[in-house]
Design a protein that fits this description.
Two copies of one chain form a homodimer.
Chain A (H helix, E strand, L loop, with lengths): L7 H8 L3 H8 L6 H14 L5 H8 L4 E6 L5 H16 L3 E6 L4 H14 L3 E4 L13 E4 L9 E4 L1 H14 L5 E5 L10 H13 L3 E5 L7 H10 L1 E2 L2 E2 L3 E4 L2 H13 L9 E6 L13 E3 L2 H13 L9 E4 L2 E3 L7
Parallel strand pairs in A: 1-2, 1-3, 3-4, 4-5, 5-13, 6-7, 6-10, 10-11, 11-12
Antiparallel strand pairs in A: 8-9, 12-14
Helix pairs in contact in A: 1-2, 1-3, 5-11, 7-8, 9-10
The first copy, chain A, binds a DNA duplex (30 and 30 nucleotides) through helix 2 and helix 4.
Chain lengths: 327, 327
DNA sequence: GCCTCCTGGTGAAATGTTTCATATACAAGG
DNA sequence: CCTTGTATATGAAACATTTCACCAGGAGGC
């Protein structure tokens, strides 16, 4: 039974009122009590549902936000996606999710598609700088696009500092910073900056290895570690990894090399992802406040007053031991 | 600069052609070479993008599919979401994602909202039976809604059988089946059915404990296991868990009770989720073909010919050892 | 040279809303 | 009883598309 879906006109007729009156009822504009009741009854009877497409055409508002993420298979991205979706739902918005596999072409393509789909705004975590539209509200995660586009990020710099301070507090005397990531600059680069800054100030030796995706095979890190070994011992005793995933991979390499964590070398990661099915961390880590980040993105994007939104919002991180440090 | 976005009318004027001609060009309807070029040039010059909302209003097609999932924080759901999104993108469709926390009210609400948003169809993995619309294409995952709504699922029955056969092949003589899940019937219930069927046929003792979400605290399982222990030994030597997550929790309880896996008891889970950052499984398990399931959902939903779609599609599962069995 | 046919461009109508200028009804004041 | 003012319902216009009946122009046949 393909009964054409009822329209406002049908409701108006059924209720014996004018079209405009029906519109008012569904937009919460005050209307005579008796009229409201008549309309509501007619709508219920016909099973009327507003057509958001017609509404969007008229108002240029769609109550839809596009979210662009590299993927949703990574626990941190998954948490972001979930929290953003929930925060949007609370405000009666829906989420149009695009996944890009961090492919620059696809990323740009998504931005273009969003323009067609008339989302009310975009929240984007992308690995590449993008051409984003002038008059489409945009909030970046971990990346600044333009002065007038806000960026939400964890306090990466502070997190890097915190990692260094923790390792030193735990007795380390020779540190290393290892990172992977995109070659294009991002807020997450500050993790290393903060870490190195502490080492510099405190005059602690700090080895650094920065790799970009695509050139970050395990052998690179193994070589780095081997170069710092003599007689089966590592001269480094504290490692800060730019992500928990990298920390995990480093642990595997260290195990192969016959080194023990945290006895021989302590490791701190970044992200705070949990093992599935519990609260257990993969490693000692700097925790990013995923929920708070999601909430902030949504707040900024949907802010009524877009005149004075900050260019960058840094949210506080925290340290949590996860078995790869000695405490 | 809030330059109103250019419309087809603007393009038509710029190109010096009629409105209908512009429409044809953007819909791939053949049009004179010279006209096509004029239109394409004008569109490029003005930065024209079709307005999908106006188009949707006219055609009742939106190239958008709504996906309803309990959440995206579970590796299996995340994999589904990602694969569905990619499969849709390949067909030039976008994904509107709703997360429900498996709350029946929210689930129903999502279905209603989709009607408003005029998605072209719904792919839904829900924990509760829903009232779904007559004329909105729907594909269920793991759940049959109505005879005319297709359901895509892994071969749960076959997976259950496979688990039993594997455990027996590995020398078990006294089995158990543990499950959690929703109380409302679902395809996933067949996991236990298949498992028990093998035990029955082969006359193997099989203990069964079925719990529903909300009544599946760890103490329930601990008690069950304690009831089967005597002098620090378990009389059960092979356990099939309805999910990998449950298998993981059972492992923890067994460890607390001083039992070793797989020496004292072997365990097989269901799902095939991987530890983050690698291919490592959480346990020996029956693997669900997430990508194939996603692809199938999309195929069924967007099938041109909706006259003879199957009521149920069962996709083959496979067994993989993951350290909780002796092989 | 004229008529017919056919190809393909044209522009008005229609889609389901919101908005706004207009109309109506009713109350109060003279 | 008439006037004025206020409050509120009305319905036409507009939004950006697609579609379709119509029309123009060129080709081919007699």
């Amino acid at each position: 039974m393909k009964n054409a879906m009822p329209t406002m006109k049908d409701v108006a007729q059924e209720a014996g009122v004018a079209l405009g009156t029906v519109s008012k009822v569904f937009n919460g504009i005050p209307v005579g009590e008796s009229y409201r009741i008549k309309v509501e009854e007619a709508a219920r009877k016909l099973g009327y549902q507003v057509n958001q497409y017609a509404r969007g055409l008229k108002t240029n508002k769609t109550n839809t936000v596009a979210v662009i993420l590299p993927g949703v298979n990574h626990p941190f991205f998954a948490a972001l996606a979930q929290h953003i979706c929930e925060a949007l739902a609370r405000r009666d918005y829906r989420m149009l999710l695009y996944v890009t596999a961090s492919n620059p072409e696809i990323e740009q393509n998504c931005v273009n598609m969003v323009r067609q789909n008339k989302a009310d705004g975009i929240i984007g975590l992308t690995y590449n700088p993008l051409a984003v539209d002038e008059d489409l509200p945009f909030v970046g995660i971990d990346r600044s696009f333009r002065a007038d586009i806000p960026c939400v990020a964890a306090d990466n710099y502070g997190g890097g500092r915190l990692a260094a301070e923790k390792l030193l507090e735990l007795g380390c005397t020779h540190l290393a910073f290892l990172r992977t990531g995109s070659s294009s600059p991002s807020e997450t680069d500050k993790r290393g900056d903060g870490f190195e800054a502490v080492c510099r100030t405190r005059q602690i030796p700090c080895e650094v290895l920065r790799r970009n995706d695509g050139e970050d095979g395990p052998e690179v890190f193994r070589e780095f570690l081997l170069a710092h070994m003599a007689e089966g011992k590592l001269d480094i005793d504290g490692i800060f990894c730019s992500t928990d995933l990298l920390a995990w991979r480093i642990q595997n390499i260290l195990a192969e090399l016959g080194l023990r964590v945290p006895e021989d070398v302590q490791i701190i990661g970044f992200d705070g992802i949990r093992r599935f099915g519990g609260e257990e961390l993969y490693c000692s880590t700097i925790i990013q406040p995923a929920e708070k980040m999601a909430e902030t993105c949504v707040d900024l994007l949907l802010a009524k007053d877009r005149s004075n939104i900050p260019a960058l919002v840094c949210l506080p991180v925290s340290y949590a031991p996860g078995g790869t440090t000695r405490e």
